[in-house]
Amino acid sequence: MSNSDNSFSDSERAGLYRAIYERRDVRSQFLPDPIPKPVLMRLLKAAHHAPSVGFMQPWDFILIDSLEVREEVLASFNEENAKAADNYTGERQQTYRSLKLQGITESPMNLCITCDRSRGGAHVLGRNSIVDMDLFSTCLAVQNLWLAARAEGIGVGWVSIIDQTRLADILNLPENVYPLAYLCLGYVSEFLDKPELETKGWRSRLPLEELVHGNGWGKPLIW
Amino acid sequence: MSNSDNSFSDSERAGLYRAIYERRDVRSQFLPDPIPKPVLMRLLKAAHHAPSVGFMQPWDFILIDSLEVREEVLASFNEENAKAADNYTGERQQTYRSLKLQGITESPMNLCITCDRSRGGAHVLGRNSIVDMDLFSTCLAVQNLWLAARAEGIGVGWVSIIDQTRLADILNLPENVYPLAYLCLGYVSEFLDKPELETKGWRSRLPLEELVHGNGWGKPLIW
């Protein structure tokens, strides 16, 4: 029942770390080339092998290639983005408006990963104390897909500037199904070396050492 | 500014997929051997390179090797688990009670990944419409760490049967900091071939095809 050899080769391990470090949130570099079905199914299978609370597997995958549906989603983005821009003033607002924050119609395929909050019945193992564990599990599936996509040369962008009630309407979701992640997928002209928000001076990467604590908040770990 | 060669070698890609498919939620196979600091820091660096909304990086990493702290956490698990067991009856309850659901003190290191909900100020880019995007980002960091751990031969188990208010007290978290994931980390005697809940007949893996929809809920995708 076990894998007798647990260990990864150097190149296998390097591949995993490469996907982690070279993954990007893509908005501007999408190519129109369609993603072949076998490749898309590999991405969904990777997502489906994420851990989930009580093996609940609360996710569904709605693939969206219809331009009509994508334009409805884009209209919701545009409304929400106009509201968001009003949160900033002066130079910061100018920078905000200069950022491209979605690739809904430029990418050839959109994907909504949903969370069925009723799956597995009333008492899902491990979801007694923290009821949002089903949403958290679905996020883990998103990250599996995002990394697999990078290894396949496919860019992914998560569109979070969106009205989820309206999105649920557009996709005709049942009442218990929450549209957790709206993703744009496509081959890309390039993967940027750094996150775009870092390059454009929006925010910097925090020093990792400042985020590490030992045995309680704000205490150093004695190694 | 771009990586001229986007593509992964076959073995790099295989390494990523291997981590995804052979990752397990570990509770019973922990070895007591300590994890060297450079290895632990590689895992935290992998987590720190997850995508985050508005490049918010809302996570902190509390490493816990103190047995005293871990025993307090275990006490919270035991209380919550007793309550959870009462949700089941008969044979199902017997099965539930036979499952090992945590490795808090058997593993040499625990790690709480938190989410600072105030980081980046009042208006984090992309967190206007969906306020929980900070929690979702932190989950993506958890999955990066989980996969990197697998590639390093380290097992990870997420303890979700826990009172998070009490956990925040034990770890002395500031008011805005949410203890999203409490993880047990350690080298393992083996990685099981399949999820333990599947092997023990608790739940089966769902057929992927049934979870794929096209352009709206319940509709097939025309390829």
UniProtKB/TrEMBL annotation, chains A, B:
Gene Ontology MF: a single term: 5,6-dimethylbenzimidazole synthase activity
EC number: 1.13.11.79
TM spans (from-to): none
Matches recorded under InterPro entries: BluB, Nitroreductase, Nitroreductase-like, Nitroreductase/BluB
Top EC class, one word: oxidoreductase
Keywords annotated in UniProt: Flavoprotein, FMN, Oxidoreductase
Domain Nitroreductase: 20-187
Full protein name: 5,6-dimethylbenzimidazole synthase
Protein species of origin: Marinobacter xiaoshiensis
Gene: bluB
